[in-house]
Amino acid sequence: MSKLETLTLDLLLDMETAFIDGNRLKTDIINRFPLLKKFLFYIYSLLLIDNPSSLPSNEDIMRTFVDFNDYEITSRVDYFSMNKKSQCLIYTNPYRKTHYYRITNNFSGGLFKYVEKISLFDERPFEHEFFIRLAKSFPLLRRLELSNMTPQNNKKSQEANNDNRRFETIEYPHMTELSLVSIHDDYLEQFLDHTKTCLANNIKLYIFYENLQTGTRNFTNDATRINCGRLEYLYLFNVRNYSKPCSAYFPNLKAVYY
């Protein structure tokens, strides 16, 4: 092992006291393998934390990589106050993985030309501008999973001010799977309202039945009709009183699973 020249790490770790950072990698990896020439990593550290003031900032994490002169490193630190959890992602560039998980509002953008699957989670709302940034960053996106129970602020502000300005329509030309299983209804509107999002054909949608009913106004909402017409498969959760969706509202639907 001491003669190791190439190493790639892809890790998701539950930590007890601290995130994995540059100091830890230098001690445990760099110093132990003096012949190491190529070191690629993608490491998530998850940590329970009671005191957010003790959480290192993104700048703190980046300072621990000061001796990694031959590497371009990206880090992202997030703290979730409701469930008192935190996460730190560190990875080497260029990014060549086909997935990018647990994206939050701290995502700064960039071009990830190999990524086909992403998951989104935050306790803060994802606004329309955030999804514009996502679509530009992941041009080959095929599967998107979203988890966010917080309503969008910009939508509420527009409604309160009777602001009818149109959003920039976002396109996901390669998307085939969309999971909206743990969401506020605003995010169903974000993806199914054709003035906000243009979905491709042949979509598989995973969603709670109640969210689908509410967001489509019991399958009568004209704003969501066009994108619902592009769905091929529905995977419905928490179904109590199921009634078959109107075929006119879902003209291309091949199957419903619940």
3D shape? elongated
Q: Give me the number of helical elements.
A: 7
Give the proportion of residues in helices: 10-25%
> Which spans have pLDDT < 50 for at least 5 consecutive residues?
none
| Mean pLDDT figure | 92
Helices and strands: which structural class?
alpha/beta
Provide the number of structural domains.
2
Q: Which strand order do you get reading across the main beta sheet? A: 5-6-7-9-11-12-13
- H and E order: EHEHEEEEHEHEEHEEHHEE
Query: How many strands, which pairing sense, and closed or not: the largest β-sheet?
Result: 7 strands, parallel
Percent of residues in beta strands: 25-35%
The radius of gyration over CA amounts to 21 Å
Keywords:
258 residues; alpha/beta; Translation Initiation Factor IF3; 2 domains; seven-stranded parallel sheet; four-stranded mixed sheet; 13 strands; elongated
What does this structure look like?
With 258 residues, the protein is an alpha/beta fold. The chain has seven helices and 13 strands. The chain folds into two domains: 93 residues, Translation Initiation Factor IF3 (2-Layer Sandwich); 165 residues. A seven-stranded parallel beta sheet has the order 5-6-7-9-11-12-13. A four-stranded mixed beta sheet has the order 1-2-4-3. The longest helix is centred in the middle third of the chain and has 10 residues. The radius of gyration is 21 Å and the shape is elongated.
